[in-house]
C-alpha cells in the first residue's frame, strides 16, 4: 500500500476540516491507490499547532511552515492559512517538488495565481483548490444534463451565496476584514464559490463584468483571540479596527452564450446559508439550492407545454463518490462529506499521477474574474476579464 505523507499549514477551521477529511476519505474510499498519513501540522501559533496535532493525530507540530517544506518525507502540502500566505507556501512547496492542495481563493492577485499555476504545470505536480461545493456529486448530474443538451444552450445564469456569518457588528476583527490579508472581500471569499459553480457547470469563460461592492460594517472590535474562525469571538469592545474589505457584492456578467448575475453577501442577517443557482437554457432550466443540498431540479421543455415543470432528482449511489458513503438514495451527504470527497480527489490524483479537479488553472480563472469585479467596482464601469 502506497502512503502519502501530508504536511498541513494552518490549524484553524479549514485545518481541522481538511484533517478530518483525510481520515474520512481513507475510511470511505479505502487505501488504494494511496493512503494519507497525517505527518506534520504548522501554525504561527505553536499552541494551536500542538492542539491540532493532538486532536487530529499529526505526528509532529511546528510553528514554521518551512519545516514542512524541508521535510523530504512529505509529499502533499495542504494550505489552510489566511489567503495572503497561499502564494509563499505554495511556491516553496512546488519548488521542493511537492503536490499542493490549497484553500480558495487561490491567491491575492491574478499575478500570484498565474505564477502558482505556471510553476505547478512546469514542475508536473498535482494541485487542487478547495472549491468544495462543486465536489457535491449532485452537481455532476447537473453537468451531465448540460453536456447532453437536456436544457439546450445556456443563455442565463443566476448564482448566489448569501449568509449572515459576518453580520454581527460585535464579532472580532479577523484577517477576513483586512484587505492586505484577505486580498479581496466578499467576491473572493464566497463569490468565488459561485464562480466555481459557473465554470464547472457551464464550462465557458466569463468575458465581462459589472460589479458593485458594499461595506456595511465599518469596523469590528479588536481581536482578543487569534486563529480559528468562531462565531462567539466578540473581541475588545473598547477598541474597534477598520474593516478594509467589503460585505456585499452584486455582479452582472456576460459570457459567449448569454449573461448572468451573482449575489454574494456575508451580512444577510437571519439568512444562515443560502447557496445555489439557476442555469437557464433555451429548452429548460436547472435549479439548485443548498436548502436541499442533495437534490437537483431540472425542467425540460419538451412534450406538451402543460407537462413542463421542475423534476426533483435526489442524489444517490449512481455516483461512486456518493456510494462510498451511503448505499441508499436520499440519505444525503453534508459539507464535511464534500470536503472528504475533495481530499479523496487529491489523494487519488497524486496516487494515480494525474491532474486533480479543480486545479490551480481553474483557481486562476476564478481569480481573474474576482480581480475584474474589483476593477469594475473601482471604475464604476463594465470591464473585460483579463485585460
Ligand atoms: N472552502 C471553504 O468552504 C472555506 C471555508 C472557510 C475558509 N476557507 C479558506 O481557508 C483558508 C483558511 O480559513 P480558516 O477559516 O480556516 O481561517 P482560520 O483563521 O480559522 O485559520 C487560519 C489559521 O492559519 C494560521 N496562520 C496564519 N498565518 C500563518 C502562517 N504564516 N503559518 C502558519 N499558520 C498560519 C492561523 O494562526 C490560524 O490558525 C482561507 O484561505 C479561507 O478562504 C475555505
**Helix content percent band:** 25-40%
| Integer average pLDDT | 96
Number of discrete helical segments = 11
Poorly predicted runs of 5 or more residues: none
Cα-to-Cα separation, first versus last residue: 48 Å
Largest sheet: 9 strands, mixed
SSE pattern: EHEHEHEHEHEHEHHEEEEEEEEEHHHE
The largest sheet has its strands arranged as 16-15-14-13-7-12-11-8-17
The CATH class of the largest domain turns out to be: Alpha Beta
Q: For this structure, what is the CATH homologous superfamily of the largest domain?
A: Dihydrodipicolinate Reductase, domain 2
Number of domains: 2
Global geometry: globular
Helix/sheet category: alpha/beta
CATH architecture classification of the largest domain: 2-Layer Sandwich
